[in-house]
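Following the same procedure, sequence and fold were stored together, as reproduced here:

>
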Amino acid sequence: MKKIKITVVRKARYDDLIEKYENPIEHACDIEEGRVYITEGWQKPEGFCDSAWESVSPFVMALAHGGENFYDGWMKNPKSAMISCNDGFRPVSFLIEVCE
């Protein structure tokens, strides 16, 4: 099984949506842009957000098992994917790549 590199590429925040729809919370996402996680196959890396893992794990699993070329040429690198977490208030975009 292949190791997979997950890089935090961008973190957005939509304050207008937060103000309009979200109940106040004490702790939100603490992932920082530029952080890199390395998986051992498809296992969730230490410290990786559970909710974000639900979004990226199918792609991590596919790449770890040799999958590539998602959606018929969507990515320039066929052994990669750009996936965002499912937080509509603070979406985080992750670049997922096979470690060669």
Notes: The longest strand covers residues 4-11.
